[in-house]
Amino acid sequence: MPENQTKSLWELLGGKQKYSTGLLLLALCLGLLLFALNYLVQPPKDPQVATPPEVHFPETEISRTEKMLEQRLEHILSQIAGAGAVDVSVFLATGTRYEYAINASVNKRVIDEKDQAGGVRLTTEDNSSDEYVLIRGYQAEEKPVVVQENSPRIQGVLVVADGARDARVKTQLLQAVQVALGLEPHRIQVLAREVR
């Protein structure tokens, strides 16, 4: 090989003029290499250590209604002789449903046209529109007029009581829930609390 074609690394980097640039590039390459090695050598994280963030859902109308019914039933059922401490869980299938007043307007227009050749064309136009009836309340707040309010539909009730070991008390608890909520017996479960 001719002597002028072979160049050293020093000459490729530009000699003394680009000495600092070459060192900077070399340091950058070493830094990237160390970063990559650190990433590859890190021990795997224990999946059980990481705790998922706590999620808070806003309270809905259904959950508020369930809590209110549970509190009322617990208060009533705990007063039954022999019932002892009582816990109640109410499960709603639907929330309260409202039917609103509606202004309905229907317009029907029939047009009968005859042309000069004796032909007849009949055109029918149907237009309908529905609007909620609104009432203006305090501070000019408008609300729809409620015609009917339908109670929430209860899916089932679970009662856990200290005294439910006694068949008589268990029957009384079941019947009390039936009367209070108007439920069929197959939607109510009464269980005895575990003795500790």
Describe this structure in words.
The chain is of the alpha+beta class and 196 residues long. The chain has three domains: 10-41, no CATH class; 61-96 and 151-192, ANL, C-terminal domain (GMP Synthetase, Chain A, domain 3); 99-147, no CATH class. 30% of the residues lie in helices and 31% in strands. It has four helices and nine strands; from the N terminus they run H-H-H-E-E-E-E-E-E-E-E-H-E. It has helices at 9-12, 19-41, 61-77, 167-181, and strands at residues 86-92, 97-100, 102-114, 120-132, 134-136, 142-144, 146-150, 154-161, 188-192. The strands form four sheets. A three-stranded mixed sheet has the order 1-8-9. A two-stranded antiparallel sheet has the order 2-7. It has a two-stranded antiparallel sheet with strand order 3-4. The longest helix has 23 residues, at 19-41. It starts with 8 loop residues before the first helix and ends with a strand. 9% of the residues are buried. The mean pLDDT is 82.
The helix/strand class is alpha+beta
Q: What is the mean pLDDT?
A: 82
CATH superfamily of the largest domain: ANL, C-terminal domain
Number of domains: 3
Number of strands: 9
What form results from the Cα inertia axes?
flat
The description of the largest β-sheet is:
3 strands, mixed
CATH architecture of the largest domain: 2-Layer Sandwich
* Name of the CATH class of the largest domain: Alpha Beta
Helix content: 25-40%
Cα-to-Cα separation, first versus last residue: 95 Å
Mind telling me the C-alpha Rg? Answer: 40 Å
pLDDT < 50 stretches? none
Strand order of the largest sheet: 1-8-9
The number of distinct helices, counting runs of at least 4 residues, comes to 4
